[in-house]
Amino acid sequence: MVGLMTITMKMVDLMTLGANWQPKLFGIRVTTGLKMVDIMAINIGCQLAAKSYLGIGISCRTNNMTTGGVSVKTSSASLSMWMLGSSHERDAAVAREALEQGDTNFKALVEIFVGRKSSHIALIKQAYQKNYGRQLDQDIVRIEPPHPFQKILVAISTSHKAHRADVSQHIAKCDARRLFETGEGSSGTIEETVVLEIFSKRTISQLKLTFSCYKHIYGHDYTKSLKRGNSTAFEDALKMVVKCILNPPNYYAKTLYVSIKGKTVNKGSLVARVIVSRAEVDMDEIQKIFRRKYGMELREAISESIPSGDYRDFLVDLASKTTTAQTISS
């Protein structure tokens, strides 16, 4: 790991962030031994320095590492992540951070593997290897101690390698019946091997059709069969994954609400991860669902929860985006 690198600051055009938005943001060009990277940093009255082990992040030197409960590191990391050259670079950075935490952030990993097209997952893996010199799949397999989410992630990662674009109604119905027969149609807990086999062989679009067929055939969502008092850790993990597959906007609206209104230690980081990852995908739909379910605008909820400042303005602006096309999601 090399030391802190010299950086040069300049003002940049912020029209893409909204004509009425006036944050104090600066463009930064960081030169490493390998490449030059353009990132963004927020002007919060502290000295800025590049986080050299990433080659793309930033950190801040200040005597006050928090501002109203939002850490300087969190705000800087979120802004720099948003300004990475591509969405797959951002996802690779999120995946690395999720794996480096003391308790692996399986939720962040699931959101990546479920919410991105197979072609995008391939680019994420390439970026991960290029930036960190490691294989993303291998890092997931090596997670210790073993976890139910880990099994599901390995299966979904395997399915992405097939690159099958078409979906089959016949396969969906057959898989729905298998899920029923090995789940609520049996006397015991669900058979993990059957679920993992299906997840490893079907695309996210095919799985979504399977769960739709399940509801049509049996009259309720598949997740209902997992809401039992004696559910296993695998079933609890599976429930979260299925919800993310079935209705991403609804899933993310709830995730944002819980993060904003809950007593999470680092709510700014959780909110930023979701908003940055969905800003170009389905943020308009998330806004509608958030408004309908919780009776308030998403931007208002963020403004009430996160202290005022450029960082909050940045998140509010992204949360107010209107999506024109879903280009990187399944």
From TrEMBL:
The keyword Repeat applies. SMART domains: ANX. The keyword Nucleus does not apply. GO terms for biological process: response to cold; response to heat; response to salt stress; response to water deprivation. Gene3D superfamilies: Annexin (1.10.220.10). One of its GO terms (molecular function) is calcium-dependent phospholipid binding. PROSITE patterns: ANNEXIN_2. Coiled coil: none annotated. InterPro entries: Annexin, Annexin_repeat, Annexin_sf. One of its GO terms (cellular component) is plasma membrane. Keywords: Annexin, Repeat. Pfam families: Annexin (PF00191). It comes from the Eukaryota. This is Annexin. It comes from Acer negundo (Box elder).
